[in-house]
Amino acid sequence: MVDFAITKPDMMVSVREVFGIETDLRVPAFSTRDDHVPEIDHAYRFNPEVTLAILAGFAQDRRTMIQGMHGTGKSTHIEQVAARLNWPCVRVNLDGHLSRLDLVGKDTIVIRDGKQVTEFQEGIVPWSLQRPVALIFDEYDAGRPDVMFVIQRILERDGKFTLLDQNKVIHPHSAFRLFATSNTVGLGNLSGLYHGTQTLNHAQIDRWNIVATLNYLPPEEEAAIVLSRVPGKDSENGRKLINQMVTMAGLTRKGFAAGDLSTLMSPRTVITWAENCEIFNNPALAFRLSFLNKCDDFERPIIAEYYQRCFNEELEGSWLVHTGAAQ
Length: 327
Prior knowledge:
Elements: E1 11-14, H1 15-19, E2 26-29, H2 48-60, E3 64-67, H3 74-85, E4 89-93, H4 100-104, E5 105-112, E6 115-122, H5 124-129, E7 134-138, H6 145-153, E8 161-163, E9 168-170, E10 177-182, H7 202-206, E11 210-213, H8 219-229, H9 236-257, H10 267-280, H11 283-290, H12 300-311, H13 318-323
Parallel strand pairs: 3-10, 3-11, 4-7, 7-10
Antiparallel strand pairs: 1-2, 5-6, 8-9
Helix pairs in contact: 2-3, 8-9, 8-10, 9-10, 9-12, 10-11
């Protein structure tokens, strides 16, 4: 069992001072950090509306879901709010391998006084419920049905959780908080972009008190983040290059929205591209290795056109001959 130094928030912080949002709101926080508190990323840019939604989750114990396209920083947004509140955080990815037993717990064989005995090992849900922890379910709409019904139990107003095998009812800790991130808000894989996502029933979604949407940042803010991650580009030419990269990413997002492309460049991809530029010292090569090689062959001429618009040069490589884009 992990013992937390402080079991409940013991101070109040100003949202204006800590997050730079113009409001008089003050939220509870912990005065000390422990190993479960995420590290502070000083370069992170907070979306005001989403930040207020997350802060409501922490301050008022509201079940809060953040939805949006991949790479927008949904989980990171929650973690960075928690980091500044010194609130312990546990992040669980609801991939297809996570089972009901992983969440609830199971009997395991352990050695006690030299003898094998059967002992119940708590899963992540009962462990978190009893502690001052913000539990984040990542990729919420990718969870298996049996897993989702386990989660549904703690979405109720009182949040009590019953361990049937142990004949035990767990009451949530006063500082337990629940968050989730999703790409589709339970609507399933309508766009064809998020394979493996499930269509969730309305009763499941309706139990979330707050649902906020996190979109991509304005170009100038996205460029600032990329520059903070790749400080080697902090020069006149480097900043110009990053602006061109962000513009290129914006074109792929517009192309995706229009149905011309089946994939797009997330901010994460732009950062990877900039990092690879430092390795290869060749933006075109770094672009191919960071994004282009993930794309459908038939869409590459469109992407090459976007690249020519942004960089005023043609992409070169064997794929041009293969697709006929060089003709």
